[in-house]
Amino acid sequence: MYFLKKLALSFLLIASLLSTWNIPAYACNNGANGQDIAVQKLYGCRRDLYYWVWQAYQLTDDSWDPAGISDACNISLPFAKVVNGAFVINYMLTDDLHLQWHSTEDYLSASRAADNRFHGPFYQRFIEYKGSSEADAEVGRTLARDRTDLHCPLFNLNGPSDDPVNRGSVMVHEAWHHWQQKHEFESDHINGPTGACTQKGKACDWYYFHRVNAFEFGQLDQYDTNLNNFRFHSPYQIQSEFDADIAELAQPWVPIAVTQKARYYGNTRLANDFVNRVGYRIGQPRPWSRYFPPATPVDPCYKSCRATCNCSDLTGSAKGACLRECASGCREGCANR
Amino acid sequence: MRTITEVIQHGIRYTYVYILCLMILLVGCDRNISIPTSSADDPPKISTPLLSEITEITPLTIDSVDAFLSNAAITPHSQTEIIRKEISRISKDPQIIDALAKQLLTLPVKNIDRHLMILATLGEMRNPEAIKPLVEFIWSDQPFTVESTAGKGDSISTSFFNHTGALKARAVEMLAYIGTKEAYQATLEVIAKHVGAEVRIAAIDAFLFNHQDSLEAKAELAKVVLADETKLIGIPRWTNGMNIAEFDARAAEFYRLYPEEQPPVPTIKKGYQNTEKAPISAR
Fold this sequence. Notes:
The structure holds two protein chains of two kinds.
Chain A: H1 2-20, H2 34-43, H3 47-56, H4 78-91, H5 104-111, E1 122-127, E2 135-138, E3 146-151, H6 164-182, E4 190-194, E5 197-204, H7 235-249, H8 256-272, E6 281-282, H9 300-304, E7 305-306, H10 316-321, E8 323-326, E9 331-333
Parallel strand pairs in A: 1-3
Antiparallel strand pairs in A: 2-3, 4-5, 7-8, 8-9
Helix pairs in contact in A: 3-4, 4-5, 4-6, 5-6, 6-7, 7-8
Chain B: H1 4-28, H2 65-74, H3 80-89, H4 94-104, H5 112-125, H6 131-138, E1 158-159, H7 163-178, H8 181-193, H9 197-209, H10 215-224, E2 237-238, H11 244-257
């Protein structure tokens, strides 16, 4: 009898362990606001797009099961809202070669979950969270793949952070922690409030200012800590630069709600999230922005080029042989750079 | 040969070992379908939405405020001129200001996009009747958004945002844009006394912008701005259509004048010696 009791207890223990594995995520406050509806209308319900987002951003964890993965166009649910955020990252910029902080390809490659020049592989989960945190990146996990957790504040209808431009910028921000991990830099935020950063808790970064054209398109993954040529990014910095690009250099068809919100997020981050003062503001403090078509021709190669090789690493014939392949059909050799 | 009892006893005795092994496996086991090695796929091609030459905007009347705000939010940002024209048509209508003010001061804010449209409309009207509700909004003690402040996350790699400050920052930009003496005085008071850094910084920039960044305006600001925010008077604006060389020069000047705002070299993880050199090409 004693042994049967022990056996029953053991099975109960195992059963309780299994039941706590991948705790099912509960629903957020589902529903779609005007900005999400408007952004989704720009592309409609496209199977090729949500499949691509599912794969590229590794929304493959079963935490997405109750979050809309099987109802991928339902914009009331988190999965489709992530597709909206990915749309902002991947389609909304003009890729103005001279003005834009960084290219679409840079933001795309930085934010997607693949093992690439930016970071190692990670995946993204949907995790309900009762606090105000929008997302977390878990890096350097033991015996497990790194991951980003996206929380309900990013998806709660009537919640302040529920919009596609914020989701896009948060995805870029969290992916940058994975960049830090790959490049062996500390991925912690700094404990605030401190210096000019007004945020409480571990929510502050340094801003490593660089001039507008300091990074060639396709080189956002790189850095240089040599003081004579110092170039670096922190997570809130890359997020602010992304906000700025969307605010000022979005495609002409992007709704006002998106560009205004991007400026709103970007300027507040510049003011609040950095230990050191940031020496610029985004946009003009007008009610409605003035639109200027790109003054400089947008190089079609940059719009869709993937940096398949880094021209700076090559010399001689290898440099000449290396071509940047562009979806638009452009093929430009390193010899031209 | 063991008896059944002995087998069960043996099993129970080592069950705890098996549970421990199972726990180790569970910790390391990600139930994911595939681990991408290198995802070389480009996103699918999507035709850019057709942009009609003239986008209609809902006329703004006392009865159509909601419809106008919703319409404005989804108008392409390249066509804000039609919104400005419509607002200029009714800019002297006190009933519309009252209706917008009432919505502005309905807190907490349930739809921030909508509040941004309200603020932009009030600002564009440039009507002094909007000063009072804007000031009330900026100095309000009420919580602007419903969000839990409990448990800001245990993770060290977390993302947060202060919406209350951000909304007030936008409001003070609209206050300054009204452009009257009273509006400017109210803006200066924000610069001198508001508790929100993002609100003060927005007010500094907006005050200057509405005085064409003049030297006189800078001098006036210097009298009221907080000591450690003096350096923020006249920082450049990164905008579509800006002169890049001028922007770069002014930003560089900021960091030259205030070297204390230069960040330290980033921290490498403990135990690592990062010697990677990555020459970066500039555009």
